[in-house]
Amino acid sequence: MVSDDCPCGSGVKYEECCAPLHRGGTAGTALALMRSRYSAFALGLEQYLLDSWHASTRPPGIDLDGDTEWRRLQIVDTTHGGPSDDAGSVKYRASFRSGGKPGLLEERSRFIRVEGRWLYVDGDARWR
Known about the structure:
The protein is an alpha+beta fold. The protein has a single domain, classed as Roll (Nuclear Transport Factor 2, Chain: A), CATH 3.10.450.50. A four-stranded antiparallel beta sheet has the order 1-2-3-4, covered by helices on one side. Strand 2 and strand 3 form a beta hairpin. The model has no long low-confidence stretch (mean pLDDT 95).
């Protein structure tokens, strides 16, 4: 089971932060969706990741690496993506360990809102 703290690093308990979205709730902003997707990676929630991905760019499946431990999410900036926007982006850094080695993913993710629901479209990623 998940510890009390949300994996997204919001400082809020998981049950009050990303869990409602993982159970079918709707993110109010692109940032909230981005945080919930990070938590889904950390928790291995493959179906949630697919369900929150726009159909035009969604892969047929995701094979999450069970050896990857997602350690920390840092939000760098956001552009639009608020409750009254239909598009937005979030730039973030996510640190992880894989195969015993540290790594860093930097990405500017793009999101759109379709019929009131935020969806991940794509991103410009850099792995280090």
